[in-house]
Amino acid sequence: MSNVINESGILAISTRLQRLADSLRKDGQQIYKAHGIDFEPKWFPVIYTLHLKDTMSVMEIAAEIGYTHPSTISLLKELEKQKLIRSRKDRQDERKRLLTLSEKGQELVQQMLPVWKRMEKALTALTNTTNNLMAAIAEVEAQMEEKGFYERERGIR
Amino acid sequence: MSNVINESGILAISTRLQRLADSLRKDGQQIYKAHGIDFEPKWFPVIYTLHLKDTMSVMEIAAEIGYTHPSTISLLKELEKQKLIRSRKDRQDERKRLLTLSEKGQELVQQMLPVWKRMEKALTALTNTTNNLMAAIAEVEAQMEEKGFYERERGIR
DNA sequence: TGTATTTATGTAGTCAACTACGTAGTTTTA
DNA sequence: TAAAACTACGTAGTTGACTACATAAATACA
Predict the structure, then answer these.
(1) Chain C nucleotides covered by protein, CB below 7 Å
(2) Does B18 contact strand C, using a CB cutoff of 7 Å?
(3) A12 beta carbon < 7 A from strand C?
(4) Backbone region of residue B71 per phi and psi (left: phi > 0; alpha: psi in -120 to 50; beta: other values)
(5) What pLDDT shows up at residue B1?
(6) Sign of the C-alpha dihedral, residues B39, B41, B43, B49?
(7) Among B76, B134, B131, residue whose Cα is nearest residue B105
(8) How far apart (Å, rounded) are the C-alpha atoms in residues A28 and A146?
(9) H or E, element range at B57
(10) Distance between CA A112 and CA A110 in Å, rounded?
(11) Spans of all domains in chain B
(12) Out of B12, B17, B45, whose CB is closest to A17?
């Protein structure tokens, strides 16, 4: 752990958030690997979405997972290459491309469900401290919704 | 805000951390701009370190800010181009390159000190909710130190 | 109806971190 | 004291997100 980042306190908060996110993502990667599952943590939002909703367009998925559409498109491209999802044109609206899980994708989800349960337990144990991280994130997101960092700084007397 | 990311709960925690980090960094950028200061939030750890320690080698800075040395080198290169820092070889050990703030760098720090104060206030207001985010991060970091996400998942019965 | 606007998708290039690997001094040791 | 090992620094290429721009289909409106 770094000295300056701790001592400079809250000013380095985005660096610390980033670092925490990175190491959780990397551990996630290792966990799938240890279970013999060929899956990247970054695929989770798309796969989980299609598991719940069955058929969605590119823009719908992007909105649902909260990514920009270019990022979403590149994820979808990767998942299609992995044969985890399939796409077809919408007959009603030919601008749209509709995505669904493939057979392989559905099987993979079934295989991952118990692993997701285990991950949830581990993450809960990890983050359920005096100040709960998930709750803290939700609270800060709500605060930002109300008034962002920029507006708040501008408002300091 | 995204539905799936919220509903899938803790499994998407790294995505949410990342997103929060990004938006704080972007707002930081805007704040410097609004104060007419030509400064990137990512430069903060290096500049703050050199402000405190005066003279350090590349590896010392990397260790201090907790980045890998290639990342640090590219930051230093940028800062040298901006003329905010200066470098010279170490006479004792010619492998080492010693960095210090330039005149311009020192002046910039003086200009930024009050802005950092304001940012601290705004960030404190933003994050000081029921579950304090800074405290939660520190607690989770400590938990990870003790036993990481990977080890915890492996240990689930 | 044909033109303007909006919407859905795609492409190119950027950014800030990383890992892997290479080179050149320094230190240790047989 | 020369070879081996280590340390400091640098470069190249990757990753996973982004913004800006382009295109094509659908819709609105004069």
Answers:
(1) 7-13, 16-20, 24-27
(2) no
(3) no
(4) alpha
(5) 43
(6) positive
(7) B76
(8) 32
(9) strand B56-57
(10) 5
(11) 3-155
(12) B17
Tens digits of residue pLDDT in B26-35: 888 888 888 8
Give A-chain residues touching B144 at CB under 8 angstroms. Answer: 23, 126
For residues B2 and A49, the answer to whether their CB atoms sit within 8 Å is: no
Give the 3-state secondary structure of residue B96: coil
> Does B4 contact chain A (CB < 8 Å)?
yes
Q: What is the rounded distance in angstroms from the CA atom of residue A26 to the CA atom of residue A29?
A: 5
Instruction: Of A130, A61, A26, give the one whose Cα is nearest residue B142.
Output: A130
Rounded distance between C-alpha atoms, residue A59 and residue B142, angstroms = 39
**Chain A residues lying within 8 Å of B66, measured CB to CB:** 1-2, 4-5, 15, 19
pLDDT in tens, A59-109: 999 999 889 999 999 999 999 999 999 999 999 999 999 999 999 999 999
* Higher local confidence (pLDDT), A12 or A9: A12
Residue A68 vs residues A11, A58, A59, A130, B2: alpha-carbon distances, Å = 27, 10, 9, 34, 12
pLDDT, one tens digit per residue, over B9-45 is: 678 788 788 888 888 888 888 888 888 898 888 899 9
Segment B49-93, tens digit of pLDDT: 999 988 999 999 999 888 989 999 999 999 998 999 999 999 999
Q: Give the C-alpha separation, B103 to B120, whole Å.
A: 25
**From start to end of chain A, where are the E strands?**
56-57, 85-89, 97-101
Architecture of the domain made up of A9-154: Orthogonal Bundle (1.10)
Residue nearest to nucleotide D27 (CA to C1'): A93
Q: Which one-letter amino acid corresponds to residue B72? A: T
Residue A6 CA, nucleotide C16 C1', distance (Å):
21
CATH code for the part of the protein at B3-155:
1.10.10.10
**What single letter denotes the amino acid at residue B144?**
M
Q: What is the pLDDT of residue B21?
A: 84
